[in-house]
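Thread: Modeling a multi-component assembly for a lab meeting

Hi all, long-time lurker, first post. My supervisor asked me to bring a structural picture of a complex we are working on to next week's group meeting, and I have zero experience with this. I have the sequence lines for every component (884 residues in total). Could someone generate the structure of the whole assembly? Inputs are pasted exactly as I received them:
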Amino acid sequence: MKDKSQVQVPLEPERYELRAASPYHFELGRRDFFKFLGAGLVVVSVLKTAVIAQESGGGRQRRGESLPQEINAWLHIGENGKVTVYTGKVEIGQNIRTSLSQAVAEELHVPIENIEMVMGDTQLTPFDMGTFGSRTTPTMNLQLRKVASAARDVLVNLAAAQWKTDAQHLVAAGGKITDPQGKRSVEYAALLKGQQLTETLPQEDPLIPAANWTVAGKSMPKVDGREFVTGQHRYPSDQRLPDMMYGKVLRPPAFDATVVSVDTQKAEQMGATVVHDGNFIGAAAPTTQLAEAALAAIHAEWKSEPQISNKELFDYLRKNTTEGKDPTGDGDRYDTGSVDQAMSSADHQLRQTYTVQYIAHTPLEPRAALAKWDGDQLTVWTGTQRPFGVRGQLAEAFRIPEDKIRVLMPDMGSGYGGKHTGETAIEAARLARAAKRPVKVIWTREEEFTWAYFRPAGVIDVMSGVRKDGTITAWEFHNYNSGSAGIKTYYEIPNQRIVFHAVKSPLRQGSYRALAATANHFARESHMDELAHTVKMDPLEFRLKNLKNERLRAVFEAAAKQFGWGKSKSEGQGFGMGGGFEKLGNVATFAEINVDRKSGEVKIVRLVTAFECGAIVNPDGLRNQLEGSNVQGLGGALFEAIQFDNGKILNDRLSQYRVPRFSDVPVMETVLIDRKDIPSAGAGECPLIGVAPAIANAIFDATGKRLRALPLIPNGLKAA
Amino acid sequence: MSTIHLAINGKPYAVDVDPQTALLTVLREHLDLTGSKYGCGEGQCGACTVLIDGKAQRSCITRVGSVAEKKITTIEGLAHGDRLHPVQQAFLDVGAMQCAYCTSGMIMSAVALLQKNPNPQPNEIVDLMDGNVCRCGTYPRIVSAIQKAAKASRETAAAKGASR
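Re: Modeling a multi-component assembly
Sure thing. I ran the full set together rather than chain by chain. Output:
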């Protein structure tokens, strides 16, 4: 075996010059690493170019963002044996601080308490595009396991050299290397005293197979859970600095409004720092109360163009398609065979339209940022899924190089895809620059509902042809605006035309947990149910007849078994299913509902979810994500919808926008299929997609009423 | 502006503030007790829940002037030194959290609930906790945690009674 201590970090000196505009702390020589981290062992993981392209969403870059770095994670073991892992991923409630620690503990053979995860700090961690798309488990988990495994090998070899024995005889366990024959052992810390070793990945290094995991693969409580139950954890909105001020931003009365005139004189006389810069008007003061009072004293006139409301929404979406690509990068069009021919020769044809409304992520912690300037250096603590993206936005807004900006992301109060942007970071930084003091901006719930962005609304037209025996022969699927994630069908259909139509959205829209897969699965799985009834087949039998994918069949069959599909039902009861494949996970959801004939009230009684995402890393964490996805899915399926008119949000409060509560939660049963032979995939998104179609199909089963619009029953069944 | 005297977690505080200010703002901004969270500002989500004389109250819609001299308990004052309150311990044991932003309010509401009803059935927990929102959807685990805490508290009480 070669001497690993001689392996150099592959950073070419001339590349520093090429990237002079954005020199990172990570483009360091070997010596600089140790100046920065202290002596010990550093293992660096280098991501392959193909993966970088995939991570960045098809290689597209927004202006102001740096190109991905080659290094995507590293691990340092200090002379004191303390393990520090550096990753640009962030913790937003999906518990990756725990699951990634587990992965490292497993491979490195150290107690999990010895591991510290440094996450989402643009100065300390390697570049990362962001925490979204269920990518952490399939990529970062694997990278960190490789890194930790390589570190263990270095330690084993060090001990072997010290004892002049064969490394194969040595065992790593509990933060020590032990020689069972020589009956001696040495702690990692002792081995690394005075050392400055580096090791670089990727390399050929066999990982511990999932079947042999001892730490990973087990349920593990949140690593820093105590901080949370005692109120000690500091979320982005809890950050504080000496001399800090509180900032507020004057919002226009409608979207896309521009300032006509502003009078800030009164506000300035109140002792607040007032900023009017283009369309930005804000105030900062030593207390929120004073900042609010100053804001109220600003007189501003705005002008805006007339804008549409919910009433015209779906008509508008069909009529306002644009050229251009869908931001999810899934592609826009798939054609196979001859749909028109197959349609005309089918025994039955079915045409239906499905719609989804805009919904709001409603993270319980609204956007928050604390910004401070030291000369031309800007530091911002903020809640975001993309700290590096926010750094890029700040660089663009203030026209300063990215190396003058540090963005830190304290574990935040969730995101669900809704915190990819840096609005509050920019607002706080702008006010802080004027105030010459640190400024914190926390959005109100009303601001979060109005000035964040929404899960896209959409219209989906489905046309299909089916033979009498239940074979689907033609499938045409048009999605307007909601997105192309999950747009492809996994059913075996020889003739297909699937098109995503981009639209100039009337509201600001963006990512949402599971993206458009929720809308596309709602349309597809509802339509499948309608087709099954058209040919008078059992919906499960009909699906399986047209489905070859073994993993997907397995979840449908497992969920059906657990659910007791085929059992008889009582008055008012309804059963339905929906499922699919998304983000490398397979899900089938079966719903039992009950309809009160008199009141029209629909009660979701039970949800059975079968889920398979490869080898399971943390079963308890996975169940938690599944249940959470189901609950979140219930909101969009049943009652969540943004009401808007002429550039205003009409239901911008929790008292007006209903989110799922304790009393909305049905009995939830989960069947986890652990495929130790398949690499682990993420689970934060996929389980969401089966909820809406399963419930819609169950409502049809109970009442004969087919609901094709999400939310299904915002005002109960009678109004639907 | 006037000086208001507050008794929070057994400690006296004096703050110079408009009595109309929300208690939540005073806790977070003036006293740096940031365990109580802002979620909606209208008492709809429960993230800001504190105990006022043992009763759960939404601090975002409670004027600070109305709670002067009353006994205020926040999440920071629930544990006794290193020993967690049974509800805190149960949330930790059950893993009744994801992002945990709602957790402070959930725990405070649950403490008040158990004081009123030491042996709540799941449906009673659902009814009494329905004003607290968890956007991550950990509701079933929170119900389990409250039941677990109830059991632990009853056992502790029984053990104390037996040893007397």
